[in-house]
Amino acid sequence: MIGMTFGVACLAGLAVAGLLVIRLVRGPTVSDRLVAVNTIATQATLAVIFFAAFAQRTVYLDVSLWLCSFSYLTTIVWSRYLERGLL
Amino acid sequence: MTAREGAVVVLAAAGFFFTLSGVVGILRMPDLYTRIQCSSKTITMGALPALAAVVVGEGPVSPYGSRALFVAFLLLVVNPLSSHTLARAAYKTGVPMWKGAVIDQVGQPAGDQGRSHENGDG
After folding, report:
1. What is the pLDDT of residues B93-109, one digit of tens each?
2. Facing A76 at nearest CB: one of B27, B32, B82
3. What's the total number of domains in chain B?
């Protein structure tokens, strides 16, 4: 029962993140697209950790940790480029 | 269904609905700043119950539960940081606000001229 819940939550999170592709395609500015990318990364973190708990494989936990701790770098680098104009 | 299973289902459903409302906000909000607000608050508050579901379902000492706690901590640090940085950079480079925006407390008034000066705060 708990494993099934994790599997359903993984699929539901991925489906909701799929909606964000609309904003990713249509965003008027690059910053709008980065908001969508950030949220997709958060949802991917959750989906991977749910899949790890669903399939009982600890390997995927490292993937989710990596996604969570490095996904913000896109936003940081883009903001730095916007404010200072150098990378 | 034991109490633990019920708690897992309820927490996962709560996280899913928070996330769904955040995604609808990102899709429907009129300008960049309101979208950043949805992405920052609602998505983080949707991720925390979902991670709490993993912690409750697997136990906090198991590999899954401990990693879920750590991911929750990282999200609480990283998500507001990136949202704040992006909003600040977008504001400094002049990304336009929504036409119906009432007040711009940092710089010039956004919608109608002079309202922020009348209020006297800024």
Report:
1. 888 888 888 888 777 65
2. B82
3. 1
